[in-house]
Specification:
Layout: E1 2-6, H1 13-18, H2 21-28, E2 33-37, E3 57-58, E4 70-71, E5 74-78, E6 83-86, E7 95-99, E8 104-111, E9 114-119, E10 125-129, E11 133-134, E12 142-144, E13 148-152, E14 161-166, E15 170-171, E16 175-176, E17 182-185, E18 188-191, E19 195-197, H3 205-211, E20 222-223, E21 226-227, H4 229-239, H5 248-254, E22 257-258, E23 270-273, E24 276-280, E25 285-290, E26 295-300, H6 301-306, E27 318-321
Parallel strand pairs: 3-4
Antiparallel strand pairs: 1-2, 5-8, 5-11, 6-7, 8-9, 9-10, 12-15, 12-19, 13-14, 13-18, 16-17, 17-18, 20-21, 22-27, 23-24, 23-27, 24-25, 25-26
Length: 323
């Protein structure tokens, strides 16, 4: 950044007091301009995943980006209800992503009912309601791998259901029931079949995607109860132990290797379209969350391509294979 500052020349005190020609000359001549320069890195950045606003930035960006204030984030956990991450601090603001129960949120600023920060799982920035995050929660030990995990009041399926956690929710397990079939969590008991330890994540992401067929489409959604296209891909890859960015353009840039034109597609490949992404069930069938059907479906890739307008020059932008 460069900033110029005008600086008054030191006038002759005697000439100024006398009011003679010397002072007249001093008053009318052009003052020399002194310049000083603030030097530092200047670079483009993606505002979706760079925690900087006009008034403050994450302290981790100090030395990389200039901001009036740098803030050390407070790490919170998302409540059991989950939370939508929004573009602005208002309930009617556009959703940009979703925070799942138990995920970590780095809070940088709070005003009224809203806080601004980013999810630790992918760095995506936005605003969240403060009553949907909490300090001091236990660190999660397990993650939900089923489409939905029911939580019961006691370690028995005959007791009242007290909560339902979506696929991807992170939970702290306190103990296992004497019968060995239930896990004790903060709000009750859930089946051991519905969660796996975080340290043991690993699955076929296509299997998880197929479990979600029929789940409604939700802009910004990324949990088992409702999803958008890139949220589905991020979720199922994450359950397979593969960290993925949030949006489809970010995923296309970061994930896998590009397939040659003559390489056939196979199970688990990602196909990218303008503003859209899906995962292949096999060489011909795409699993994707989409606004056409308003749900997650498995359908022929050829049908998906055919729905793009004829004016679309390149319906398929990339085909990527995850190692």
């Amino acid at each position: 950044m460069t900033h110029s500052s005008g600086s008054l020349a030191p006038h002759s005190k005697a000439a100024s007091l006398a009011g003679g020609p010397a002072s007249e000359a001093a008053d009318t001549r052009a003052d020399p301009v002194q310049q000083f320069v603030l030097t530092g890195p200047v670079t483009d950045y993606d505002p979706r995943v760079t925690p900087i606003r006009g008034d403050l930035a994450d302290i981790a960006l100090a030395g990389r980006f200039f901001a009036p204030h740098y803030v050390a984030p407070q790490i919170h956990r998302v409540a059991a209800s989950g939370a939508m991450l929004r573009k602005a601090g208002a309930g009617d603001a556009q959703a940009v992503s979703q925070l799942l129960p138990g995920e970590a949120f780095a809070l940088l600023d709070s005003t009224g009912d809203w806080g601004w920060g980013y999810g630790l799982h992918d760095g995506y920035c936005g605003y969240v309601r403060l009553d949907q995050i909490t300090l001091g929660s236990a660190d999660p030990s397990h993650v939900v791998h089923s489409r939905s995990a029911l939580v019961f009041a006691e370690p028995s399926i005959k007791t009242p259901m007290v909560a339902a956690l979506p696929m991807g929710a992170r939970i702290a397990v306190d103990a296992t029931s004497e019968c060995g079939r239930f896990l004790s969590v903060a709000c009750g008991w859930m089946s051991v079949r519905h969660a796996v330890p975080l340290a043991e994540q690993g699955c076929d992401p296509v299997d998880r995607a197929l479990q979600l067929v029929g789940a409604p489409y939700l802009w910004g959604g990324r949990g088992g109860d409702a999803l958008d296209c890139s949220g589905l891909v991020q979720l199922v890859l994450g359950l397979a132990g593969i960290a993925a960015p949030r949006d489809s353009d970010q995923q296309m840039a970061a994930l896998g290797r590009a397939l040659a034109d003559d390489e056939p597609l196979q199970r688990g490949d990602l196909v990218f379209f303008p503003g859209h992404v899906g995962i292949m069930m096999d060489a011909d069938t795409l699993v994707h969350a989409n606004a056409h059907w308003m749900q997650v479906v498995a359908e022929p890739l050829a049908d998906v391509i055919a729905r793009f307008p004829e004016t679309t020059l390149q319906p398929v932008l990339a085909r990527k294979r995850i190692a």
